[in-house]
Amino acid sequence: MAVVLHSANVSSGAVQRGQEGNQVDDRMARCSYGVHVRQKAKPEDHCPEIQASLQWCPYEEGMPLNASDPISFPFYRVVSQKKAARGIVFHEQLLFNQAPTAPETFDQNTAKLCELEADLSKIPVALFDKKKNSKGQTYYRVAFELVLIPSSATLVFELQFNGISYGMVRSRY
């Protein structure tokens, strides 16, 4: 009989926890999270090369993280009309750095945390920004966001397009 009573107490506690939600308001960031980005050089740089740098989320080590305040990473990709018709899946590496301030470029303190897979094939192609290049070829500029939601002992990622969620992003560690 005591086992049943103990079991009932555990169940009751689990139900209470579920009804009350997360009891921890803020967690402290243990590192900075970021991604590789490629961008055209600024005209004042006098260098026409594509430059690689890192884009970090606005939270650095020691800053408070809250599940009700998700972190958004804006992305865009240029995709051919053929590829868009077949379905678009992108892979991004989520990086972390434990330095007090996130660096502008990859350094010895920067490492891969996981690979994110963003599947945009659920989004109707008609919603993509259609363009033509100088050769008359049609392509799409696809702007989307990967949203990082910090929660208890895990990071959850969501794919958003035009402010609408298109499901969870797969992460491989």
From TrEMBL:
This is Uncharacterized protein. It comes from Penicillium olsonii.
